[in-house]
Amino acid sequence: YRKDAILREIADLEANLSRRLENLKEIKEEAKKRAKELISKPTKAEIQVKYLLSKTGNKFEFQKIIDGDNFYYIVDFYLPKSKLIIEIDGEYHETPEQKQKDSKRERHLVSLGYTKIVRFRNKDIFNLTEKEFSKKLKVVLERNRLTPIIPKTKKLEKRIKELRILLTKYG
């Protein structure tokens, strides 16, 4: 009886995982299109941050697509060496509704292992000198990292593996 239950659970989990991965392929294609649009039409603040980042010597990616486990995020700037995300916020980010969405998004990004996230308001970018920007960036890079949480897809894969190991015990 236990062996049959394990086999059913494995089959259900694999079907769930397969559907999730197929859906993610479609979502990633949409994210790629959106990222290309954003890259082709940067805001003045994004252009300024590109310039400021280039002066720091840090390698960065602009409009980086990040796998969000159930969907994809596009972040303004990503520094792969430190896993730092930099977001440039326009005025609409100051609304209570958008602040709530941004907070939820940040929590999810942290759960995915992106433990350093900094936000700049558009209007503040133009008031920063190269030296001030470098100093702020250095402070963020030296901050302690938060502990990431395992995303759902990884949990499904881990559970399938555990069940297969358990199944070997039943022959």
The level of helicity is 55-70%
- Give the integer mean of the pLDDT values: 84
Q: What is Rg? A: 20 Å
Distance between the termini: 13 Å
Structural class: alpha+beta
Q: Please count the helical segments.
A: 6
Shape: elongated
The secondary-structure element order is HHEEEHEHHH
What's the main sheet like?
4 strands, mixed
Strand order of the largest sheet: 1-2-3-4
The percent range for strand residues is: 15-25%
Q: Tell me the total number of β-strands.
A: 4
Low-confidence stretches: none
Oligomer: single chain
List key phrases describing it.
171 residues, elongated, 4 strands, 4-stranded mixed β-sheet, alpha+beta, single chain
Describe this structure in words.
The structure is a single chain. This protein is α+β, with helices and mostly antiparallel strands and 171 residues long. 60% of the residues lie in helices and 16% in strands. The chain is built from six helices and four strands. It has helices at 2-40, 44-56, 96-111, 122-125, 130-142, 152-169, and strands at 61-67, 72-79, 84-89, 116-121. The chain has a four-stranded mixed β-sheet with strand order 1-2-3-4. Strand 1 (61-67) and strand 2 (72-79) form a beta hairpin. Helix 1 (2-40) packs antiparallel against helix 6 (152-169). The chain is elongated, with a radius of gyration of 20 Å. The protein starts with a helix and ends with a helix. The model has no long low-confidence stretch (mean pLDDT 84).
